[in-house]
Amino acid sequence: MKDTIIMFDMDGTLLDLAFDDLIWNQQLAIRHAENHQCSLEQSQTSLNQFYQQHKHTISWYSSDYWTATVGVDVLQLQYDFKQYIAPRPGCFELLEQLHKQGYRCWLLTNADQAGLKLKLDQIELSPYFEVILSSEQFGYSKEHQLFWQKLQALHPFSPEQVVFIDDTAPVLDAAQQFGIQHLLSIVQPSSGRAARTATELDYPAIQDLTELLDYLGKINTKVKHEQTA
Ligand SMILES: [Mg+2]
Question: What SUPFAM superfamilies does UniProt report for this protein, alphabetically (predicted)?
Fold first, then answer.
C-alpha cells in the first residue's frame, strides 16, 4: 500500500516534548520573572492564565504572539536551549525504514515557522519528508477543520490513504472528523514525564516509533484480505 501517506506530528511525536516542557513550563517563567522583576510564583500564575485562555488556538503556537503578550523573546529562549532538542525513541530507524519501503511521509506541525526551522536545523528530519508544513502558514491549527481543508487544497490527498500519528487528542479528533481513520497516538510524548496509561489515551498508541511498522503491516494485510475477499 505504497500510496499510503504517513502524516506525522513533530513535537511529542517525532521529537521529545521534554524540550518544549523545559521552555514553556520552566525557562519561560524564569525569564519572565527576570524581565518583569517579579517572583517566580507571580510569573507562573500570570503565564498560566494566558495558557488557559489560548490553549489549542493558533496564538498558542506563535512565538511572536507570546513575545508580544508576555514580554519575553520566546524564540530567542528556544535558541538558548536548542541543545536539548532531541528525537524520540525509534525516530530515525522508522524514517529510514519508511524511506526504504517507499512510503510517502508528511510533517504537519503546530509549531510556528520560526520554531519549525530551529528544530529542523537541529535534527535532520527534512530529507525524509515530501511535505513539511507549519499550521501558521494556514492561520488555523490542526485542531481546526479549516487546517485540513486547506491542507487538502494545497496538497491533494484522500483521507482513506492516510495514517496520522500525533500525541494530542484534540488534533486526532479533528483528523477523525475530517475522515482520516488510521489514527495513532504516543504513549510517552515527553521523556521527562510518566507514560500515559491506556485509560488516559483515546486512541491506539505506540511508544517506540518503530512500532508503527507493525501497525502498517496489519493495515496492509487487511487491505489485501479485503481485495481478495
Ligand atoms: Mg505534538
Answer: HAD-like
d(CA 40, CA 48): 12
CA 191 to ligand 1 centroid distance, Å: 13
Question: 66 CA distance to ligand 1 centroid (A)?
Answer: 18
* 139 shares a domain with 28: no
Q: Which three cell numbers stand for residue 224?
A: 489485501
CA of 16 to the centre of ligand 1 (A): 9
- The whole-angstrom distance between residue 146's C-alpha and the CA centroid of its chain comes to 18
Name 196's Cβ contacts closer than 8 Å, sequence gap at least 6.
187, 188, 205
Same domain, 181 and 215: yes
| Domain closes at, from 38, 66, 83 | 83
Q: Please report which helix (H) or strand (E) contains residue 116, including its range.
A: helix 113-122
- Is the domain of 63 the same as that of 90? no
Mean pLDDT of 91-109: 97
What's the number of CA atoms in the CB half-sphere (13 Å) around residue 104?
A: 13
What is the 28 CA–ligand 1 centroid distance (Å)? 19
When pLDDT is cut at 50, 70 and 90, the band that residue 184 belongs to is: very high
Residues 6+ apart with CB under 8 A from 103: 2, 4, 5, 6, 216
Identify the band that residue 228 occupies on the pLDDT scale cut at 50, 70 and 90: low
Q: How many residues does the chain have?
A: 229
Q: What is the pLDDT of residue 56?
A: 73
From 43, 68, 83, give the residue that closes a domain: 83
